[in-house]
Each structure stands twice: as structure tokens, then as C-alpha cells.
Amino acid sequence: MSATYKDIGVSSEGHVGIVEIQRPPHNFFDNALINQIADAFEAFDRDGNIRAYVLCAQGKSFCAGADFQNRPSTGSQSESGKHL
Questions:
Q1: Within-domain flag for 12
Q2: Domains contained in the chain, number
Q3: Half-sphere exposure of 58 (CA within 13 A, CB side)
Q4: Which domain holds residue 22?
Q5: Interatomic CA distance for residues 27 and 1, integer angstroms
Q6: Within a domain: residue 75?
Q7: Residue 58's domain is classified under what CATH number?
Q8: At CA 50, angle to CA 76 and CA 62, rounded to 5?
Q9: DSSP readout, 9-46?
Q10: 79 part of a folded domain
Q11: In this structure, is the dihedral angle defined by the CA atoms of residues 72, 84, 8 and 42, taken in order, positive or negative?
Q12: 40 to each of 9, 17, 73, 74, how far by Cα in Å?
């Protein structure tokens, strides 16, 4: 997988696609992170070799919640997370 992302690391082992959230210490979700994760999963689907996904995170917390303070006023949160 050749794409690079600001808030996630993407790798694979055999038929397993791994997406690691890299926003410690709390790994808050926001629209940008959701879009990056969705893009990584879509890239795994296009690859055709991936049969399972692992979503993990750096730091003590997997995810402490969501931060939608800076969300666009014209879009909806459900639009960003439609793939998740």
C-alpha cells in the first residue's frame, strides 16, 4: 500500500490489513481520521488480497471519544463515517 496518512499507519501481514490510529494519548476520532480510515479500508478492498482488518491504536487508550469541534458546517458526521 503506497498511500501515506497523517493520523494512521497502514500495513499488512499476509491476508490481514492493519490500520493503527496514531493520535496518542487519547486517539480522538474526528472527520479527518474517519476519512483516512475509510480510505485505507477501501484501498485494502481494491487490493483483493486482504481478508480481515485489524484496527488498533498507539498509546494507552484505543479511543477516548470523538472531537467534532472543527467539523464542516455544511456536511454531516454520518457522511464522513458512512464506511465505518
A1: yes
A2: 1
A3: 10
A4: 8-68
A5: 23
A6: no
A7: 3.30.300.220
A8: 50
A9: EEEEETTEEEEEE--TTT--B-HHHHHHHHHHHHHHHH
A10: no
A11: negative
A12: 9, 9, 25, 24
Q: In terms of pLDDT, which residue wins out, 78 or 48?
A: 48
How many angstroms separate the CA atoms of 1 and 82, rounded?
A: 22
Residue 16 lies inside a defined structural domain of this protein: yes
Task: Give the neighbor-by-neighbor strand order of the sheet with 8-13.
Answer: 8-13, 16-21, 52-57
The three three-digit cell numbers of residue 13, written as one number: 501481514
Q: 83 pLDDT exceeds 80? A: no
Spatial CA neighbour of 81 closest among 43, 32, 40? 32
CB atoms within 10 A of CB 16: 14
- In tens, the pLDDT along 36-66 reads 999 999 999 999 999 999 999 998 888 877 7
